[in-house]
């Protein structure tokens, strides 16, 4: 139909018994755009910070396969997406001005014809969530790097992932993915992200620790150059450097030489894993003895180096220790707790914390998680936690 | 695969739209859907109060600055209309930081006062 004229608008005002003198001179005539009802447009409610990011020109990405619950990612955060219904009707209107804008813009008595682009009674709501990173390890473990001699025939398996591949498959922001790759000591080989297979990693580490020993270097001053010279004939230089980066902290001295300060805790922990993976469980005191003997000269083993890697059973006689890696446990909260309670019926907070720490949301504490997913009781004067529901 | 929310408007800023929130449902006067039909006239009083004349009703509302702004997403390509589908492709077309909230009960416009007989 034809657009409304000023005369028609004024006539309507008169019929409505509104005094034009009390109104701003500019009026909007609102009509529905032709495609308004087609559901092409929808609303996304923005969490703090996201609006500014969009205005600065940064993009948001929706990630998730058809069988996954979609998440929205900014450059560094991940959000769950959920539809929120409202009992009201929301109309979204381009070119509609607010009173401030009209006052600032001294137009004469006029009409703005605004077309309603769409309407809805729901919108996407966002809630910050933990990035879903378990899949990252799973993908990279499809084909761990076992060293140059053990390269599988490339035509048989091609389970290799570039950064772009990972960005399209993992429900997490780019920064969260890159950070996690660093945490798990992944390395880029020929453009693909790889996890080093554990036995090969220990072989590399062993080369380095033996060299440190034979050269009598201080553990906090291991020279990169010499390592590459001495070990470069045994293993690829990139892998030598990678193992130093994984198990040490890189620094440059005043003369510009690159050194590594070796991470004692991490080395002891890796050696413990190497020992523990060979059996279901070990006599604790025997293990501790062998473990101390196995680590490089000058390093001291401590059980707290094994948080999230191994669990001590103080109730058995003799006490035992077994491998339990947090990264092998389920990713979702309820499933993680179910799994932990099926391994052990009652947990102290000290024992369970390393296995639930990663579940904490942005400002959530371990205590809050335990309150929600466990039930507490006293046992021999110590507070313990067990499942809220019967475990079959 | 990941679906980037691409932006319309290129290097320039995103358009700013306004949200109008009405109670109940909007129904077309004639059959054939709402596309193309008139909703009504929107005025503001000199104090900045929005006034909406819809059909035979006057609605008074208020201007609200949204604590959580909205992004308007437009679905790319052909697809089934209906509730938002996360696995479709979307473009961020505009931002909405302001809404006109009409919550008061509409006042009917009485056009003909019957004469006393």
TrEMBL record, chain A:
Keywords (A to Z) from UniProt: DNA replication
GO CC, one annotated term: Ctf18 RFC-like complex
Identification of the protein by name: Sister chromatid cohesion protein DCC1
Organism name: Nyctibius bracteatus (Rufous potoo)
Highest taxon in the source lineage: Eukaryota
GO biological process, one term: maintenance of mitotic sister chromatid cohesion
Gene designation: Dscc1
Family, per entry: Belongs to the DCC1 family.
Keyword Oxidoreductase: no
Residue ranges crossing the lipid bilayer per the database entry: none
Pfam families: Dcc1
Automatic annotation (TrEMBL), chain B:
Pfam short name (any one): Ctf8
Domain of life: Eukaryota
Keyword Zinc attached: no
Keywords, sorted A to Z: Cell cycle, DNA replication, DNA-binding, Nucleus
Name under which the protein is recorded: CTF8 protein
Gene Ontology CC terms, in alphabetical order: Ctf18 RFC-like complex
Gene of this entry: Chtf8
GO BP annotation list: DNA replication; mitotic sister chromatid cohesion
Transmembrane segments: none
InterPro entries documented for this protein: Ctf8
